Amino acid sequence: MKKLHSWNLSYAQARQLQVRLAGRVQFTPLKSRPTVVAGLDCAFTKDGRRIFAGVVVLRLPDFEILETSGASRKVTFPYIPGLLSFREAPVCIAAVKKLRRWPEMFMVDGQGIAHPRRLGLAAHLGLFFAKPTIGCAKSRLTGAYEEPPLEKGSFTLLEDKRGVESNMQSETIGAVVRTRTNVKPVFVSVGNKCTLDDAIEITLACATRYRLPEPTRLAHQLVGKLKLSL
Questions:
Q1: What is this structure's pTM?
Q2: Mean of pLDDT values over 12-21
């Protein structure tokens, strides 16, 4: 795991760091479909003072659970839209460090590059892990899209514009993917070391009877249990 930076940053430094790190995200096609994928999710206590992270390592395509890990930390960074990874990434890294087996890919419940500065939690973590990483979020943070058809497997592109007003250019930052027929879609984007096509394909390969793909769904369940054990 790489050590990219310290966490003792001002808000302005954190924003500047996001811009710099976003340029290091790699959009390289997967050479083969991964067979060991880790789902990663985190959650806060009701008072917002503590955060938990859960990791579930699965074998594809049968979703056999190979390993789980969890961690908790006191919250040290305030809630600021666009800087959520500075609250959440440290505990996620702590949970991943406990794994005995290093997965081939990470699927994170959060944004990859579908972020105003192109560095959401999944992209931030993807740089630390230096592994293929997918962001699979339950809601949109930025960008515009058309609703995908209602059938499972359908998707539309998430587009965003940035630049001076006289030269606004549209950029594809993710996809809006229907993982279950007649159910709300999820928002998929590259975290690191994969393409958007790869991210969509793996997300759908991990979609079973639920809206959330199995890696993040099981990680969500795990982090809920960790909270209850406090």
A1: 0.94
A2: 96
